[in-house]
């Protein structure tokens, strides 16, 4: 399945209140890394943006006046992403905006176009739990250059390119993590094996002679039989006799103390 890193810039954060997409950036990946194929367009949102939003991505209202509307670029966008795995950071946000734009013009939603949505933020959280995992933090952690982003602000194509670099590292680290986890699980798993399948290791004559020599030393030291000379029944009987003897001594001692 083709993989594409995707990002959007918007007029705001509230798609349900009419905010629109102003830029789409897509970067295609292959088994060998980032390809030369991408999709990029600015869009006329047909509404004004507030100053605080412009401060983030440095795209002004004036810059978008002569840009195409989403409906003018929709088919080209659909052709590029159809049937692909889309890697999106905080995917719910971009997916929600793109689906809203597609619905406005009677086009299928991303998933209905055969797209698989992968949230790279969720992958980052699994690889780096309890850490900041926004795109800036990940780039800094992975030593990916963000100087252009710092100079020019957020941009959909630039952020998609940065995300592609981050994702390739995350995917490698997650694969390594999954392999390590699988190895641990394999070692920890107790396989069911019948007694007949267990190997039988028999002692040699030399081993038996040495074992008997050690037992004889134990017998002499203990002035009696070694533990290996007594079967379980005999051992239990011996312990019971010893306990009975101790109980009798305790009873005699108690009786003497009561007479004092």
Automatic annotation (TrEMBL):
<feature type="binding site">
    <location>
        <position position="159"/>
    </location>
    <ligand>
        <name>a divalent metal cation</name>
    </ligand>
</feature>
<feature type="active site" description="Proton acceptor">
    <location>
        <position position="154"/>
    </location>
</feature>
<dbReference type="GO" id="GO:0046872">
    <property type="term" value="F:metal ion binding"/>
</dbReference>
<dbReference type="GO" id="GO:0005829">
    <property type="term" value="C:cytosol"/>
</dbReference>
<dbReference type="InterPro" id="IPR006054">
    <property type="entry name" value="DnaQ"/>
</dbReference>
<keyword id="KW-0239">DNA-directed DNA polymerase</keyword>
<dbReference type="GO" id="GO:0003677">
    <property type="term" value="F:DNA binding"/>
</dbReference>
<keyword id="KW-0460">Magnesium</keyword>
<keyword id="KW-0175">Coiled coil</keyword>
<dbReference type="Pfam" id="PF00929">
    <property type="entry name" value="RNase_T"/>
</dbReference>
<keyword id="KW-0548">Nucleotidyltransferase</keyword>
<dbReference type="InterPro" id="IPR012337">
    <property type="entry name" value="RNaseH-like_sf"/>
</dbReference>
<keyword id="KW-0378">Hydrolase</keyword>
<dbReference type="InterPro" id="IPR013520">
    <property type="entry name" value="Ribonucl_H"/>
</dbReference>
<protein>
    <recommendedName>
        <fullName>DNA polymerase III subunit epsilon</fullName>
        <ecNumber>2.7.7.7</ecNumber>
    </recommendedName>
</protein>
<keyword id="KW-0464">Manganese</keyword>
<feature type="domain" description="Exonuclease">
    <location>
        <begin position="2"/>
        <end position="176"/>
    </location>
</feature>
<comment type="function">
    <text>DNA polymerase III is a complex, multichain enzyme responsible for most of the replicative synthesis in bacteria. The epsilon subunit contain the editing function and is a proofreading 3'-5' exonuclease.</text>
</comment>
<feature type="binding site">
    <location>
        <position position="9"/>
    </location>
    <ligand>
        <name>a divalent metal cation</name>
    </ligand>
</feature>
<keyword id="KW-0235">DNA replication</keyword>
<keyword id="KW-0808">Transferase</keyword>
<comment type="subunit">
    <text>DNA polymerase III contains a core (composed of alpha, epsilon and theta chains) that associates with a tau subunit. This core dimerizes to form the POLIII' complex. PolIII' associates with the gamma complex (composed of gamma, delta, delta', psi and chi chains) and with the beta chain to form the complete DNA polymerase III complex.</text>
</comment>
<keyword id="KW-0540">Nuclease</keyword>
<keyword id="KW-0479">Metal-binding</keyword>
<dbReference type="GO" id="GO:0008408">
    <property type="term" value="F:3'-5' exonuclease activity"/>
</dbReference>
<dbReference type="InterPro" id="IPR036397">
    <property type="entry name" value="RNaseH_sf"/>
</dbReference>
<dbReference type="GO" id="GO:0003887">
    <property type="term" value="F:DNA-directed DNA polymerase activity"/>
</dbReference>
<dbReference type="InterPro" id="IPR006309">
    <property type="entry name" value="DnaQ_proteo"/>
</dbReference>
<feature type="binding site">
    <location>
        <position position="159"/>
    </location>
    <ligand>
        <name>substrate</name>
    </ligand>
</feature>
<feature type="binding site">
    <location>
        <position position="7"/>
    </location>
    <ligand>
        <name>a divalent metal cation</name>
    </ligand>
</feature>
<keyword id="KW-0269">Exonuclease</keyword>
<feature type="coiled-coil region">
    <location>
        <begin position="201"/>
        <end position="259"/>
    </location>
</feature>
<feature type="binding site">
    <location>
        <position position="57"/>
    </location>
    <ligand>
        <name>substrate</name>
    </ligand>
</feature>
<feature type="binding site">
    <location>
        <position position="7"/>
    </location>
    <ligand>
        <name>substrate</name>
    </ligand>
</feature>
<dbReference type="GO" id="GO:0045004">
    <property type="term" value="P:DNA replication proofreading"/>
</dbReference>
<feature type="binding site">
    <location>
        <position position="9"/>
    </location>
    <ligand>
        <name>substrate</name>
    </ligand>
</feature>
């Amino acid at each position: 399945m083709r993989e594409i890193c995707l990002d959007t810039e918007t007029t705001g954060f509230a798609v349900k209140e009419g905010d629109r997409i102003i830029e789409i950036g897509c970067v295609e990946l292959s088994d060998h890394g980032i390809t030369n194929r991408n999709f990029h367009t600015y869009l006329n949102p047909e509404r004004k943006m507030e100053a605080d939003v412009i401060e983030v991505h440095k795209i002004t209202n004036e810059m978008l006046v002569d840009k195409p509307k989403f409906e003018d670029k929709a088919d080209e966008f659909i052709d590029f992403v159809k049937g692909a795995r889309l890697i999106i950071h905080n995917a719910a946000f971009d997916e929600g905006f793109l689906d809203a734009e597609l619905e406005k013009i009677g086009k299928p939603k991303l998933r209905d176009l055969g797209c698989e949505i992968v949230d790279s933020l969720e992958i980052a959280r699994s690889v780096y739990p309890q850490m900041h995992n926004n795109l800036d933090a990940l780039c800094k952690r992975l030593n990916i250059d963000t100087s252009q982003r710092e100079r020019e602000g957020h941009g959909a194509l630039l952020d998609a390119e940065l995300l592609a670099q981050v994702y390739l590292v995350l995917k490698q680290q997650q694969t390594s993590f999954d392999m390590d986890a699988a190895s641990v699980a394999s070692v920890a798993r107790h396989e069911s094996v019948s007694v007949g399948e267990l190997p039988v290791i028999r002692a040699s004559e030399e081993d038996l002679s040495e074992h008997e020599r050690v037992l004889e030393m134990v017998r002499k030291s203990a002035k009696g039989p070694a533990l290996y000379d007594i079967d379980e029944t005999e051992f239990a009987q011996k312990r019971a006799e010893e306990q009975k003897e101790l109980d009798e001594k305790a009873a005699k001692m108690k009786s003497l103390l009561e007479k004092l």
